[in-house]
Amino acid sequence: MREVVYTRAAPEPIGPYSQAVKAGNLLFVSGQIPVDPKTGDVVKGGIREQTRQVLENIKAVLEAAGYGLSDVAMAFVFLADLSLFGQFNEVYAEYFREKPPARVTVQAAGLPRGVLVEIAVIAVKQ
User: Fold this and answer.
1) What's the number of domains the chain is made of?
2) CATH number, residue 42
3) Where are the beta strands (DSSP E) in 24-116?
4) Is the model's pTM score more than 0.90?
5) Any residues with CB less than 8 A from the CB of 112 and at least 6 apart, and which?
6) Which range marks the domain in which residue 115 is found?
């Protein structure tokens, strides 16, 4: 069984994809960028502010599906510049304090709308 998840508490998709798809006990959350869902604008500031907005967007999608950050098993992180890794990690650690998920972090050129960070996650319910 496959179910599309949608919430107005996260940004509208900017292409032909769903915010998330639930399949069995797995939730696949599409890449989120630092867009304020209320305004549709990229948040002002640097990597810290952008990371915080991305994680708030992910949190909103997870909650809409009945999941939480503690259910995230895998995160895929795309940074525009790996020199921002330390600052990114500081904010990321605020959201995943205990038993953080597995993670891949890569530098990616040309992220949507010129943002500094994009994150996609996979969550699982026991």
Assistant:
1) 1
2) 3.30.1330.40
3) 26-32, 72-79, 102-107
4) yes
5) 14, 33, 118
6) 2-124
